[in-house]
């Protein structure tokens, strides 16, 4: 398993644009894989031994190599000082779980073919409860001489050859971290879901209210029993005892059966105005992307149906699915992390339109994992939406996409 993770991390530099590849260091034997779970934060560090001061004396041919107990105290002290981790405001000292070594013969290290030793260590930072924030600072980098290995021409992406890239697994999700001597810090916060808990409750309340408004249940047992009993009294007054007994018997049977009759009274119109309309639209819009967290088509369609009208379901499914499944990248799936609204404001209705129209400019931030590495994907959209009442609730009834661009996540400039 470790070798699989190391291999995955070795591809991490591919996450930068192709223009940056020429500015990366051949044989940059320093990688980090981090994983955050309910119990701990784990660091899986792969490094050429000369890069880590407590292991600098371990060189090719210097076997036997020290055991974990031999280096535990020094390594834990080193990472505490130079790579501090603060969880929910408290600095946590690492625990060295394991360390292994591998001798590398005639392999590239910092641009040269040579013999060296790689150290693979696992450090754990214990966690008592699910954290809200994790502040990670990294102080372990390639030596300054790597600046002379890369070409002299400036990297247009701003890539620093001393960058330490990391895959970061957080409760089953993937993220990317990048540490440089000038920007050595990465702070993780508990992410907001695409559709917040409050928004989910609002949508559920609207659906429930619509269902109650459109259907009423009535029990006809007692009214019917009353009429039958009245008939029995009339028959008794007319001295027709057989019919009187029959009517009373039917009245008793009606009460005993007591089966309610459900009648539809039509939909009650729900009012919506001002900020409520904008809030409703954003809840419905975010719910569109939330639908694609599911794998089953039925679940996707059921979730989409909360947001868009029936006539629009297939179009929205095709458009969003197309944007998330990247045919140009071998069918890789972009997993949406969040939506950012650049602009979302009311606009004038067209002739014969009813409800509310919105001009919306938003960005979809996601991660794509394929071919052994993970990279960011940022799409930029502009569209006009129509929000109208349908079946007693408000739905997105129409959409006109006017812009769809892929952006560089770092510069926010359009990519070719």
Detailed description of the structure:
- This protein has 416 residues and is α+β, with helices and mostly antiparallel strands.
- It folds into three domains: 188 residues, no CATH class; 76 residues; 138 residues, Nuclear Transport Factor 2, Chain: A.
- Helix content is 29%, strand content 37%.
- It contains nine helices and 17 strands.
- A hairpin with a 2-residue loop joins strand 3 and strand 4.
Which overall shape is indicated by the principal axes computed on the Cα atoms?
elongated
Task: List the domain count as a whole number.
Answer: 3
Which strand order spans the largest sheet, edge to edge or round the barrel? 5-6-2-1-8-9
Report the end-to-end length measured between terminal Cα atoms.
37 Å
| Distinct helical segment count | 9
Order of helices and strands: HHEEHEEEEEEEEHEHHEHHHEEEEE
Number-wise, the strands total 17
Mean pLDDT: 79
Residue share in helix: 25-40%
Question: How large a portion of the residues is in β-strands, by DSSP E?
Answer: 35-45%
| Radius of gyration from CA coordinates | 33 Å
Q: What can be said about the biggest beta sheet?
A: 6 strands, mixed
Low-confidence stretches: 1-22, 214-218, 261-270
Secondary-structure content class: alpha+beta
List strands and helices in order, with pairings.
Elements: H1 2-10, H2 18-21, E1 30-36, E2 40-48, H3 68-82, E3 85-87, E4 90-92, E5 95-109, E6 112-126, E7 133-137, E8 164-170, E9 173-179, E10 185-189, H4 197-214, E11 215-219, H5 221-237, H6 241-257, E12 260-264, H7 275-291, H8 297-304, H9 310-324, E13 325-326, E14 332-347, E15 356-370, E16 373-390, E17 393-407
Parallel strand pairs: 1-8
Antiparallel strand pairs: 1-2, 2-6, 3-4, 3-7, 5-6, 7-10, 8-9, 11-12, 13-14, 14-15, 15-16, 16-17
Helix pairs in contact: 4-7, 5-6, 7-8
